[in-house]
């Protein structure tokens, strides 16, 4: 009798849970952006939210939880209720945090459900306006002649420009004085004012300055040239002589570990539809971003990709000895 009663209770609970799951979302879904409003990741999130509303069938709210290189916002999602109502839109920093932070409050590969990749934003190598190098070949000679005197700006520890700078130094085998700033804007201001020499940052932050001729542009750090926009004529690092250098700031969507598979599947289906939205494509193209359209749209492949990125970035970060508490 006891067994029968437990079985009946289980059926009743399931009967109650299934309709509730089928109605997801029946209240607003919050996407946490682990950076300040107005930045490139915030822009991607807001564009994506607009494209997601119809296929997901609900209201989407963007909440900015910046600080500590994106780890505060990521941790908030990792610790949130796994019901599909709190999601995370993060970039390559999710992969680098494992090596950068000694006391990371979450486990990147264990504390999230991976929902699918969104886009990739190529990095660009730029220099101060009065730098005496017109192309990458000349820049390489200048760097060789000025070893120990080169100032490399970035937007702060854990930022995309920080990672690109570390990888760039490793690739050219030249140590530079890393100058971290509290964001891209102050770093760019000092580059424009020739207070620092070079910076490696994403097209969302550099295309306007490149197009206006206010900085020297040397290469786009992607496997192939951009197909359109103001940077279409900018050669790749590989074309310029920096063989094999390829780095993009990718964005992905995540939920707390334990989110029901039915919810994961519904968000993934909605994401795939959103990435085909014409307006979303136009907005992303204007930022120099490339919409993901490959196996990484699947949660399992998304997770494999992030794991591979962790394995790629960790040795470089450890070799540089640039940790954060």
Number of helices: 12
Structural class: alpha/beta
Terminal CA distance reads 57 Å
Number of strands: 10
Largest sheet: 10 strands, mixed
- Poorly predicted runs are 1-20
Under the CATH scheme, the architecture of the largest domain is: 3-Layer(aba) Sandwich
Task: Say which CATH homologous superfamily of the largest domain is assigned.
Answer: Bordetella uptake gene, domain 1
Task: Encode the helix/strand succession as letters.
Answer: HEHEHEHEHEHEHEHEHEHHEH
CATH class of the largest domain: Alpha Beta
- Strand % is 15-25%
User: Roughly what percent helix?
Assistant: 40-55%
C-alpha Rg, in Å?
22 Å
Mean pLDDT: 89
CATH fold call of the largest domain: D-Maltodextrin-Binding Protein, domain 2
Number of domains: 2
**What overall form do the CA principal axes indicate?**
globular
How would you describe the overall organization of this protein?
The chain is an alpha/beta fold and 325 residues long. The chain is 44% helix and 19% strand. The chain contains 12 helices and 10 strands. Strands 1, 2, 3, 4, 5, 6, 7, 8, 9 and 10 form a 10-stranded mixed beta sheet that branches. It starts with a helix and ends in a 5-residue tail after the last helix. Mean pLDDT is 89; it is low at 1-20.
């Amino acid at each position: 009798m006891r067994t029968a009663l437990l079985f009946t209770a289980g059926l009743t609970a399931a009967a109650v849970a299934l309709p509730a799951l089928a109605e997801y979302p029946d209240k607003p879904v919050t996407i946490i952006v682990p950076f300040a409003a107005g930045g490139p990741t915030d822009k991607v999130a807001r564009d994506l939210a607009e494209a997601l509303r119809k296929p997901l069938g609900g209201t989407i709210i963007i909440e900015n939880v910046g600080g500590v290189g994106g780890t505060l916002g990521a941790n908030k999602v990792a610790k949130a209720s796994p019901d599909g109502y709190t999601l995370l839109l993060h970039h390559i920093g999710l992969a680098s945090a494992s090596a950068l932070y000694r006391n990371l409050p979450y486990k990147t590969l264990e504390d999230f459900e991976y929902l699918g990749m969104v886009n990739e934003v190529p990095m660009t190598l730029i220099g101060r306006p009065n730098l005496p190098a017109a192309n990458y070949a000349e820049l390489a000679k200048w760097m060789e002649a000025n070893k120990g005197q080169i100032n490399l700006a970035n937007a702060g520890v854990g930022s995309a420009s920080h990672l690109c700078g570390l990888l760039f130094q490793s690739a050219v085998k030249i140590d530079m004085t890393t100058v971290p700033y509290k964001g891209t804007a102050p770093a760019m201001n000092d580059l424009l004012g020739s207070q620092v020499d070079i910076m490696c940052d994403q097209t969302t932050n550099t295309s306007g300055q490149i197009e206006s001729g206010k900085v020297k542009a040397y290469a786009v750090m992607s496997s192939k040239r951009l197909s359109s926009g103001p940077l279409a004529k900018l050669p790749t690092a590989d074309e310029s002589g920096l063989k094999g250098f390829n780095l993009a700031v990718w964005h992905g969507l995540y939920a707390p570990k334990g989110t029901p598979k039915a919810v994961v599947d519904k968000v993934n289906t909605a994401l795939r539809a959103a990435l085909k939205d014409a307006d979303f494509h136009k907005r992303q193209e204007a930022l120099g971003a490339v919409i993901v359209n490959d196996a990484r749209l699947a949660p399992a492949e998304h997770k494999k990709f992030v794991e591979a990125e962790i394995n790629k970035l960790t040795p470089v970060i450890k070799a540089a000895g640039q940790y954060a508490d």
